[in-house]
Amino acid sequence: MTAAAIPAGIAPPRPAWRSLLWIAPLTLLWILLTDWQPAISGGGAPIVAHQLIAHGLIALGLWLGLESTDLAPDQRRTAWLAIMIPYTLWFAVAWSAAIDGAFRADASPLPVLPLAIFLPVIVGAPLLLSSKRMGQVLDAMPASWLVALQLYRIFGSWALVAWLHGSLPGVFALPAGIGDTLTGLFAVPTAIAVATGTAQGRRAAIVWNIFGLADFAVAITLGMITTPGPLQLIVPHVPSIGAGAYPGVLTPAFVVPSSILLHLLSLRQLRLRHRAEASKPR
Questions:
Q1: Which residues contact 15 (CB under 8 A, 6 or more apart)?
Q2: Most CB atoms within 10 A, among 26, 60, 70, 228?
Q3: Which strand (E) or helix (H) includes residue 223?
């Protein structure tokens, strides 16, 4: 999502934005490093690394959240396994399909990559958002966790580097890369803001989540209309992300739907916290 100016509501309170003083330089250093040594991102190591890290952090965060509830130990284990086993299987299936080239435009007459993006959200969102057990976890889990976790979105800057090297069209790379990088940059400041428990911090987190979801809406739309296939409306002079090559295709096939679900869970958590605070006697 392009943004000449960051939405006003996303700006966290003053103590929180100071974290940008170290996050922004590190992000810029990473972009310069991958621009100087394209083999770093070209080899796919950052993509694979941040997917594994995100998977591990989600597993850890869920376990810690369950530990904070009043559930019995066997109930915690059952709840953790009920979420992590399907999630891990989904990760493994997406990874295997990417290696086998199943997401390439010429691999199947079906729109496999769009299905990989939308199907997990269509199936997972209602289950997670309506689950009472997940509601218990969200009640016990600090609201900052689901926000700070998406710091990994700064790795979306790979699209900007790919554009600079002429291997990705600007019509896709600029909106998607800038949107992802901004979402990742503001994840920690927003998490610090929401951890204060103030209305301002909660508003910042809501706007941050909406911004992150809007980034995906723009990136997915541009990805589909620039990718060879029945939905292509723009034919760029270089291939778009929809080429389906491993490991880059794992970003839209797994990271994007996972991140969308994290945004939706964060919004649910913030809504529940607001209702709980509003119902307290004054």
A1: 192, 196
A2: 228
A3: helix 199-225
